[in-house]
């Protein structure tokens, strides 16, 4: 028995069903929803691909993925048997019009079995160039005109630049209503990311000081230790700015910088985010070098292993100009944020996997303590650790116990694991449930995607028009190129690099 309402009957078609994303993320997510009794009472999942599979073999392939990648491994008391009865495989050629009739037939058949018309969800877990082709062949099917029940889910990258994103939006909205289109940015499904809105808008404490009067600057770091993970084909055409900044990092920035929504209505929240994107200062091509730094990793060592430089990776041009690191200083030109810099950085093969947001407050205006009391005196800082650490820390000054007056910074900590245990749903669980429920709050609207492209396009174009002369310019296990340090040091500040698990207050003043 469940004490919550489950989504209505749903039929999910996963294009790219035999691919990596489905095996690593989507199927584990759907299985976890099933274990937690969040799946609809009636559902069916159809994996679509070119690889020939029997239903049985396909289920085995997904179970392998669950064993390797899910937060819960294996069968879980016979649950897998029960769940997997609802999975089948459809081999089809997505370029062949006639094959789409098979989809319409399955919908009819399931409708009869369920005794009701289910949600029909098309998940595009395919290479980006296939999305327009599949969408335009799905569009004419009768089922796609049902704006209430039929939905299409599109993975990033959403376009390669502003022009292609605009064209893709045009194509999708000519086939589907905007309310049927769910553009995924999986960062928005992370618990720690959703919690930013709770922190800001469910507490009276932070919002009054969340502005240019009290905040000195904000930093967002999304560092990864991984390299390309067999995605050379895609990454070589993308680079860090497109792969991480245009979407995940700008989404984080929007959550931190947006105005308070008046309701949790999907469009209300998305409107507030678009306002932020529109207010981000757009740099002229000739001034980009003052605000943005790119990098690419060299050969080197990481965690005791020798790793190839980017240009020596599989499927990569040996003289590739692709950025594997990007750092940008953004400004948001509005009343709340005028002149407050937002420093963001992201990169592959960096020292540690860590995504954190730091809100650095201004110094206390007057300091009455004796100078020797304040050798380690630091301004207040709020750190939101998104992953893999999941916590929120507020740094403030405390008097060290003893007969002398010595002040030093200490942290007030909210840690997810300590408070709630460590069985949080993964981002894809939340997002897939939202799609089945028809809740688009955590998905990107067309104007939002284009507004984000408008922010990064001048930087991308400036970089493309001038080949990098210093690549590779950072070694694995570092925090990126020297120029990224200079970008922030010029302003008399430094990147806040919190070590694993934040050991030791003194280590990261
Ligand atoms: C994806 C990028 O969107 O996000 C990858 O394409 C990146 O290059 C990944 O590794 C990072 O996601 P997460 O959830 O591990 O931070």
TrEMBL record:
<feature type="binding site">
    <location>
        <position position="50"/>
    </location>
    <ligand>
        <name>NADP(+)</name>
    </ligand>
</feature>
<dbReference type="Pfam" id="PF02781">
    <property type="entry name" value="G6PD_C"/>
</dbReference>
<dbReference type="Pfam" id="PF00479">
    <property type="entry name" value="G6PD_N"/>
</dbReference>
<dbReference type="InterPro" id="IPR036291">
    <property type="entry name" value="NAD(P)-bd_dom_sf"/>
</dbReference>
<feature type="binding site">
    <location>
        <begin position="93"/>
        <end position="94"/>
    </location>
    <ligand>
        <name>NADP(+)</name>
    </ligand>
</feature>
<feature type="binding site">
    <location>
        <position position="186"/>
    </location>
    <ligand>
        <name>substrate</name>
    </ligand>
</feature>
<comment type="similarity">
    <text>Belongs to the glucose-6-phosphate dehydrogenase family.</text>
</comment>
<feature type="binding site">
    <location>
        <position position="224"/>
    </location>
    <ligand>
        <name>substrate</name>
    </ligand>
</feature>
<feature type="domain" description="Glucose-6-phosphate dehydrogenase NAD-binding">
    <location>
        <begin position="14"/>
        <end position="195"/>
    </location>
</feature>
<dbReference type="GO" id="GO:0050661">
    <property type="term" value="F:NADP binding"/>
</dbReference>
<feature type="active site" description="Proton acceptor">
    <location>
        <position position="248"/>
    </location>
</feature>
<keyword id="KW-0119">Carbohydrate metabolism</keyword>
<keyword id="KW-0313">Glucose metabolism</keyword>
<feature type="binding site">
    <location>
        <position position="348"/>
    </location>
    <ligand>
        <name>substrate</name>
    </ligand>
</feature>
<comment type="pathway">
    <text>Carbohydrate degradation; pentose phosphate pathway; D-ribulose 5-phosphate from D-glucose 6-phosphate (oxidative stage): step 1/3.</text>
</comment>
<dbReference type="GO" id="GO:0005829">
    <property type="term" value="C:cytosol"/>
</dbReference>
<feature type="binding site">
    <location>
        <position position="353"/>
    </location>
    <ligand>
        <name>substrate</name>
    </ligand>
</feature>
<feature type="binding site">
    <location>
        <position position="243"/>
    </location>
    <ligand>
        <name>substrate</name>
    </ligand>
</feature>
<feature type="binding site">
    <location>
        <position position="156"/>
    </location>
    <ligand>
        <name>NADP(+)</name>
    </ligand>
</feature>
<dbReference type="InterPro" id="IPR022675">
    <property type="entry name" value="G6P_DH_C"/>
</dbReference>
<comment type="function">
    <text>Catalyzes the oxidation of glucose 6-phosphate to 6-phosphogluconolactone.</text>
</comment>
<dbReference type="InterPro" id="IPR022674">
    <property type="entry name" value="G6P_DH_NAD-bd"/>
</dbReference>
<dbReference type="GO" id="GO:0006006">
    <property type="term" value="P:glucose metabolic process"/>
</dbReference>
<feature type="domain" description="Glucose-6-phosphate dehydrogenase C-terminal">
    <location>
        <begin position="197"/>
        <end position="495"/>
    </location>
</feature>
<feature type="binding site">
    <location>
        <position position="190"/>
    </location>
    <ligand>
        <name>substrate</name>
    </ligand>
</feature>
<dbReference type="GO" id="GO:0009051">
    <property type="term" value="P:pentose-phosphate shunt, oxidative branch"/>
</dbReference>
<dbReference type="InterPro" id="IPR001282">
    <property type="entry name" value="G6P_DH"/>
</dbReference>
<keyword id="KW-0521">NADP</keyword>
<protein>
    <recommendedName>
        <fullName>Glucose-6-phosphate 1-dehydrogenase</fullName>
        <ecNumber>1.1.1.49</ecNumber>
    </recommendedName>
</protein>
<dbReference type="GO" id="GO:0004345">
    <property type="term" value="F:glucose-6-phosphate dehydrogenase activity"/>
</dbReference>
<dbReference type="InterPro" id="IPR019796">
    <property type="entry name" value="G6P_DH_AS"/>
</dbReference>
<keyword id="KW-0560">Oxidoreductase</keyword>
